[in-house]
UniProtKB/TrEMBL annotation:
Pfam families: Spore_permease (PF03845)
Name the record gives this protein: Spore germination protein KB
Keywords assigned by UniProt, alphabetized: Germination, Membrane, Transmembrane, Transmembrane helix, Transport
Transmembrane segments: 12-31, 37-57, 77-95, 115-131, 143-163, 183-201, 213-236, 266-288, 300-319, 331-352
Gene Ontology process terms (BP): spore germination
Protein family per UniProt: Belongs to the amino acid-polyamine-organocation (APC) superfamily. Spore germination protein (SGP) (TC 2.A.3.9) family.
Signal peptide start-end: none
Cell compartments where the protein resides: Membrane
Topology term for the membrane: Multi-pass membrane protein
Length: 371
C-alpha cells in the first residue's frame, strides 16, 4: 500500500470542510428552540472526550488506521465481523450524503432535473480524487477551506439589521431538557461524525499531528457552526427554522442590499457543495478501506469505482421523498450512528489501553531480568 502522508494543514482543512459542509444549509439542534445555541455548546462538551479518545488511538498505534487498530485489539475473527457491519453502515452513510446533495439541488435549484444527475456528477468527482489519493483531496481542501469563512463573515455582517434578539431570548425558558435533546441532536449531526477520520487518516508528519489536526479542525468548525446557526436563529426565529428544510439557506436568501446585492444564497449553496464533495469523498474512502480490510486486500484504489457505483444507485433509491429523508435522518439515523461513533470507539480504546499497559509491563520485566 502506498504511504499517503498528509500535512497538518491538509488534515485540518478536510475536517473543517467535512463538518461545515452540510451545516451550511441545515439547522442543528433545532429541537432546543430559542436555546439552540446552548444545545450546540452542550454538543461540544459531549464530543470532546471522544475526540481525545480518537487522538489517543492514533498515538497508541502510529501509522495505523482505525481498521488496523480494530484488528490488533479484537483479533482477526471478531474484527472481520466488525468490518462487515461497519462496511454496511458507512456505505449507507455515504449514500445518505449523496442523497442529501441530490435532494438539495433538485429542491432549490433544478426541480425539473432528475436527481441522479447531480448525484452522478458528485460521484464521478469523488471517484477521480480517490483514485489520485487522499493527498490530492487534502491539497484541494487546503485551497478551498477559506471559502466558507468568507461566506460566514459576509452573511453575519449583512444579516445584522434583520437580527431579532427576542428570537434567542429568554434563555432557558423551557428548562434544561430541550437543551439536552438539542445537544444530542447536534452531537450526532455533525460533531460525532468526525470519527470517520480515524479510518481515513493513517500517516502523519509527526507524533503531535493527530492532536493538532483533530482539535484545531474541530474547534474552527465549531465556531463556524455556532455563529452561522445562531445568526440564522436570530433572523428567522425558532418556529420558522423548524418548519424549513434548509433554514440556513433560507436565512441567506433574506440578504438584500438594494438592487446591487440580491439572491446571495448561491454562496451558501456553493459552500455546501464544496463541503459535500469532501464529505462524500472521505466517506467513500472509508467504505472502500473497510471492504479491502474485510477481504484482506492491501490496496483500496482498484475497488473505488465498483463500490462507488453501487452506493450511487443506493442513494437514488434510499428515500421515497424529501419528507421521508428528513424523517429518517431526525428520528432513526441518530440511533444508528451512536454505536459506531461512541460505543465501538470507546470499547476499542479500553482494549487498546489494556494491551498497551500489558506490553509496557512485559518490557519493564525484561529490563529487570537483564539487570
Amino acid at each position: 500500500m502506498l504511504k499517503e502522508v498528509i500535512s497538518d494543514r491538509q488534515g485540518i482543512s478536510m475536517i473543517i470542510l467535512f463538518l461545515v459542509g452540510s451545516t451550511s444549509i441545515f439547522g442543528v439542534g433545532m429541537i432546543s428552540q430559542k436555546d439552540m445555541w446552548l444545545g450546540i455548546i452542550m454538543a461540544l462538551i459531549m464530543v470532546l472526550p471522544l475526540i481525545f479518545i480518537y487522538i489517543r488511538l492514533h498515538n497508541l498505534f502510529p501509522d495505523q488506521d482505525y481498521y488496523d487498530i480494530l484488528e490488533i485489539c479484537l483479533g482477526k475473527v471478531l474484527s472481520k465481523i466488525i468490518f462487515f457491519i461497519k462496511f454496511l453502515w458507512i456505505a449507507y452513510f455515504t449514500a445518505d450524503i449523496f442523497d442529501t446533495y441530490g435532494q438539495f439541488i433538485k429542491t432549490v435549484n433544478l426541480p425539473n432535473t432528475p436527481q441522479i444527475i447531480p448525484i452522478l456528477a458528485m460521484g464521478l468527482l469523488s471517484i477521480w480524487v480517490l483514485k489520485e489519493g487522499i493527498e490530492v483531496l487534502g491539497r484541494w481542501s487546503e485551497f478551498f477551506v477559506y471559502f466558507p469563512f468568507g461566506l460566514l463573515i459576509f452573511m453575519v455582517i449583512l444579516l445584522i439589521p434583520q437580527i431579532e434578539i427576542t428570537n434567542v431570548t429568554p434563555v432557558l425558558q423551557d428548562g434544561i431538557r430541550p437543551i439536552l435533546k438539542g445537544g444530542f441532536q447536534t452531537f450526532t449531526f455533525p460533531f460525532s461524525q468526525i470519527v470517520v477520520f480515524t479510518a481515513a487518516f493513517q500517516y502523519f508528519r509527526d507524533k503531535r499531528s493527530p492532536r493538532k489536526i483533530y482539535l484545531s479542525g474541530f474547534f474552527i468548525s465549531f465556531i463556524y457552526i455556532f455563529l452561522i446557526a445562531t445568526v440564522s436563529l436570530a433572523v428567522l426565529g425558532p418556529d420558522s427554522m423548524e418548519r424549513m428544510y434548509f433554514p440556513i439557506y433560507s436565512a441567506a436568501a433574506r440578504i438584500s442590499v438594494g438592487e446591487l446585492l440580491q439572491r446571495l444564497e448561491i454562496i451558501v449553496a456553493t459552500s455546501f457543495i464544496l463541503g459535500g464533495f469532501v464529505k462524500v469523498s472521505i466517506l467513500l474512502l472509508c467504505t472502500t478501506k473497510a471492504f479491502t480490510k474485510l477481504f484482506g486486500f492491501t490496496e483500496y484504489r482498484f475497488i473505488v469505482v465498483p463500490i462507488a457505483l453501487i452506493i450511487l444507485n443506493l442513494s437514488y433509491f434510499a428515500y421515497d421523498s424529501i419528507m421521508h429523508y428528513f424523517e429518517f435522518n431526525y428520528e432513526i439515523w441518530p440511533t444508528l450512528l451512536f454505536p459506531f461513533t461512541v460505543i465501538i470507539p470507546i470499547l476499542t480504546w479500553i482494549i487498546a489501553e489494556i494491551k498497551h499497559r500489558g506490553k509496557r509491563g512485559k518490557g519493564s520485566k525484561k529490563r529487570t531480568l537483564i539487570n
